[in-house]
Write a structure and sequence with these properties.
Bound molecules: iron/sulfur cluster
Mean pLDDT: 92
Number of domains: 1
Number of strands: 6
Shape: globular
Low-confidence stretches: none
Largest sheet: 4 strands, antiparallel
Strand content: 5-15%
Distance between the termini: 41 Å
Order of helices and strands: HEEEEEHHHHHHHE
Length: about 170
């Protein structure tokens, strides 16, 4: 038997990867999503479709507007580890452990990047920088950061990115 809806919430509250720009640069909006407050400035258009730029300004360790009018994707999106927990592939504790490990890896990477390059960046920003900036091939420490970013991306792809993720959220490297 899989996790129940309260346990689903517990898993997501411990994570936040789809809000804080760990998994995606932007989140897909539907035609009927009405943005308000700080979300208004986050709207963007890509290939004629509406998106919201991440990280979400209402993410502060967890969603701070969970009981308010959020974009539809915020309630509908379920990453792979969450789906697998609902389907009984993972227990709640196993899902929490996977998230904890991924967060630890990400936080270490963010810290190492900040020590080497200065500003604090999200994982996706670091990943993009590592793949677009030639200095990551020339400098030994930056090369190591790039390798770690690639490994984390594999971990995130394996556990968090279901194929249909790209219908709802949107990954943007270029
Ligand atoms: S990445 Fe998955 S577990 Fe994490 S907050 Fe999003 S849906 Fe929940
Ligand atoms: S509104 Fe809440 S659930 Fe939606 S992206 Fe922002 S923090 Fe995440």
């Amino acid at each position: 038997m899989g996790v129940n809806s309260l346990e689903e919430q517990e898993i997501c509250i411990s994570c936040g990867f789809c809000c804080d720009r760990t998994l995606f640069d932007v989140a897909r909006l539907t035609a009927s999503d009405e943005l308000w407050g700080k979300l208004v400035d986050r709207e963007t258009e890509i290939d004629g479709k509406r998106f919201m730029r991440l990280p979400c300004p209402y993410f502060d360790s967890k969603c701070t507007i969970y009981d308010k009018n959020k974009p539809a994707v915020c309630s509908s999106f379920k990453c792979k580890v969450l789906k697998d927990s609902i389907n009984g592939v993972f227990t709640k504790q196993e899902a929490l452990d996977i998230i904890k490990e991924a967060k630890k890896t990400r936080d270490e990477l963010v810290k190492e990047y900040r020590l080497l390059k200065g500003p604090e960046k999200t994982f996706r920003e670091i990943f993009v920088d590592a793949h677009k900036n030639p200095e990551f091939e020339k400098n030994k420490e930056l090369r190591l950061i790039k390798m770690k970013a690639d490994l984390l991306d594999i971990l995130l792809t394996k556990y968090f990115k279901p194929e249909d993720a790209f219908k709802e959220f949107y990954e943007l490297i270029d």
